[in-house]
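Colleagues,

For the teaching module next term, I've prepared a clean inverse folding example: a structure given as tokens, and then the sequence designed for it. I'd like students to try predicting residues themselves before seeing the answer, so please don't circulate the second half yet.
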């Protein structure tokens, strides 16, 4: 019984110490596409869901403000989007949607901190498809 308890405690410690790595994910565009046609589609798609905090067309970088989802039970979440242009010819754009969760460490006062939870893959796919559909409309 003692070994079982120690094993369970060790597993909880390992799971509780999990770290998340943020990765950049590519947006697949045709190689012959021009940057000047893609960038407006990217900006329009992002502003549909997020508030832009920082944008630099020349460097091809965009970052949004945090968008928070509050929960009655206190497990609040937030996410923000970053997009960067790695190269213009051929066009290479990458996206990263970072997510965090608020973890309470003092239930009496509600104090806690934001904890990194890695990429939000669902939102990345949603925004990728939105960018591609807007880009297709611009090309008509």
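(Answer key — instructors only)
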């Amino acid at each position: 019984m003692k070994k079982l308890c120690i094993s369970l405690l060790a597993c909880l410690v390992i799971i509780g110490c999990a770290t998340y790595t943020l990765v950049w994910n590519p947006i697949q565009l045709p190689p012959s596409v021009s940057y000047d046609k893609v960038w407006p589609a990217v900006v329009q798609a992002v502003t549909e869901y997020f508030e832009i905090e920082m944008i630099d067309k020349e460097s091809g970088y965009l970052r949004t403000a945090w968008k928070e989802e509050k929960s009655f039970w206190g497990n609040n979440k937030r996410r923000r989007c970053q997009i960067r242009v790695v190269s213009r010819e051929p066009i290479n754009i990458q996206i990263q949607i970072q997510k965090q969760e608020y973890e309470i460490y003092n239930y009496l006062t509600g104090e806690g901190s934001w904890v990194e939870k890695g990429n939000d893959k669902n939102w990345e796919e949603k925004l990728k498809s939105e960018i591609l559909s807007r880009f297709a409309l611009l090309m008509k």
